[in-house]
Amino acid sequence: MVDLIAKKRDGFEHSTEEIQFIVKGYTEGTIPDYQMSAWAMAVFWRGMTPRETADLTLAMATSGDQIDLSSINGIKVDKHSTGGVGDKTSLVVAPLVAAAGIPVAKMSGRGLGHSGGTLDKLESFAGYQVERSREQFLQQVREIGVAIIGQSGNLTPADKKLYALRDVTATVEAVPLIASSIMSKKIAAGADAIVLDVKVGKGAFMKTVEDAERLASAMVEIGRQVGRQTVAVLSDMNQPLGFAVGNALEVQEAVETLKGDGPKDLTELALTVGSQMLVLGGKETELDVARHKLEELIASGRAVDKLAEMVAAQGGDAQAVYDFSRFPQASLKYEITAVKAGYIAEINAENIGHASVLLGAGRLTKETKIDLAVGIVLQKKVGDFAEKGEVLATVYANQQKLLDTARPEVEAAFQISESPVQASPFIYKII
Length: 431
Ligand code: URA
Prior knowledge:
alpha/beta, four-stranded mixed sheet, four-stranded antiparallel sheet, 16 helices, globular, binds uracil, Nuc_phospho_transferase, EC 2.4.2.2, thymidine phosphorylase activity, transferase, 1,4-alpha-oligoglucan phosphorylase activity
């Protein structure tokens, strides 16, 4: 390992066998953390070739269990987001593309930071079971075309260990390490093809389009090298996605989007990601035809019915899809108003995300129990005009103390300008 660290430190390329040796040794514990840290730092400075990155991805993808989706007919297309505030896209896209005949066998995570992950959000449906046996999971997808469950088994232990190490050694921000980490998990989860939603902006991991493009290209290239067709959509995360931030609030917005009444940005992103999935899944050859088909599924009610079907199949209260009073409700409500008239120049996604954590919608440690009812619903988006005193956002809370701590953070998120403001595009690029 000392020789391999020196090799990467000096800017040379590893062979496939060397990468397999490193990943196997680290997973099994024969390579200690201090050597792996030094190697990760060498990669941070020297980078990796596309071939090395693909080798690292495959070595991590095969370091533990792999999900065999071969009993499900058709091309299995997975979707992944690099994460952002108010990102409920999976809740829209999974039932939507399933209604179009693309099988969705999705394993999701719980969130750390801002609001919960997809699993937490789904638990806003009373009774929803995220833990399913492998056979129940596969059978549900074969029968109704869609399932979203928690990760079970020992998937990508190498990534789990390396990601935790990178987190405490200032080596997270290395493109080949991020790209291989994300792609290894998708490959181990059985995806034949992958659509990545790479977020760009103040509330995202990647702050500039150039950085996001570098990460997206690295992941698309890994997909090419390992035979999993991959497309990356670069989407905006300067302001929260949609209006709602917080678990049950986001689920309601996702349901509205599936009914055709969603916010413009979320609808656009869901249709963009969804049509890419239809094309990768071989259902359509043209993106605009795919998009039109998805729009029809929304208009006919079939998309939202598919969500209800999935919720029911996993033991959840599917009636909530048609009756929002069945979702957890917050007991306190506070309106944030404009201190002066003007155009909304900024709604800082980081502030809103942090405020939602303060309210109890997200978790700071794995052990935190989250409050599904609380969060923030924006009434304005960047570029909108607000009169003095007009409501900018509504804060939903269950404890006065938490509401009082979160309120200044929501207020701080808003910047108002006297001159008109142009909002960032919803989608920057598709790679
Ligand atoms: N997300 C991941 O899964 N891995 C990384 O390395 C960074 C973000």
